[in-house]
Amino acid sequence: MNVLSGKGGVGKSSITTQLALSLSLSGHSVGVLDVDLTGPSMPRMFNIEDAKVTQAPGGWLPVPVHTTNSDKGVGQLRCMSLGFLLRGRGDAVVWRGPKKTAMIRQFLSDVLWGEMDYLLIDTPPGTSDEHISLAETLLKEARPGQVAGAVVVTTPQAVATADVRKELNFCVKTSIPVIGVIENMAGFVCPNCAECTDIFGKGGGQVMANDFNVPFLGRIPIDPQFVMLIETGQTPEYPQGTIINGQDFSKALQSGSSGSTSEVTKDASLLAEKYRDCSLEPIFRKIAQDIVTSVG
Ligand code: ADP
């Protein structure tokens, strides 16, 4: 499935990351392909920036984030990013369209994923001709029925909503089925006062999904603890009495599941484990379940 947004910075990569973690935590084998030429961010999200991509006969091997753990019901998570290949060539990618399309085509066909339940593709933001050609390449390279569809990300601000309308029209134009809309940055999990407030208002994503007659998958608040987890490797920790969607997030720490001090290590293989303590995890668990049900 494809994660799209008409606008950069709405949280497309964060959503891709969390969908991947949630699918893997519920036992699926997951791959993430990052074709965002404008700024590949998956290596940073998964803390595998220094990973070396191995060439094998017939293609490239994706980089493992973590392996299968059958005891814990966790499926393997692997990632391949243009970022690995662009490294050392200067980050500003100034290739012209045809070269990009050729690169992306090769990228889609030459990664040796092997068996996998779900492949998430993080695409560049926008709806230009270049994006249309990327979408067409995707559809052409995939086997029939293999592209389950697109998850479209928006934020509650009106501008982003107008932009994402373009993205939904883009899906119609390129015949990519829309799995659903996610409204990101809807509300704020305050790190100090145990409250979740709506800072941008709410409802834009839901209204837009209704207008386009596509499913609305959910609203994701801003949680600075998620950013801390990605940036520093710190296990999420919330003040006493933080209740989000009826779940108390300070309790997990009291009962000692993660100890009383938050663990700080940027070991990529521990990311999914630590993410279990994040307030956004139950929201994404539900969204991932809904997606699995809808795409089969
Ligand atoms: P995009 O891929 O659309 O450019 P990113 O996923 O990189 O956007 O998000 C932009 C910034 O916002 C990142 O620093 C990310 O950590 C932060 N961010 C996105 N969603 C959330 C969220 N729900 N809570 C906290 N921070 C978020």
From TrEMBL:
List this protein's GO terms for biological process: iron-sulfur cluster assembly
Q: Has the keyword Protein transport been applied to this entry?
A: no
Q: Where is the protein situated, by its record's location annotation?
A: Cytoplasm
Where along the chain is [4Fe-4S] cluster bound? C190, C193
Q: What UniProt keywords are attached to this protein's entry?
A: 4Fe-4S, ATP-binding, Cytoplasm, Iron, Iron-sulfur, Metal-binding, Nucleotide-binding
Protein residues bound to ATP: G6, K7, G8, G9, V10, G11, K12, S13
**What domain of life is recorded for the organism?**
Eukaryota
- Function text: Component of the cytosolic iron-sulfur (Fe/S) protein assembly (CIA) machinery. Required for maturation of extramitochondrial Fe-S proteins. The NBP35-CFD1 heterotetramer forms a Fe-S scaffold complex, mediating the de novo assembly of an Fe-S cluster and its transfer to target apoproteins.
| Name the UniProt record assigns to this protein | Cytosolic Fe-S cluster assembly factor CFD1
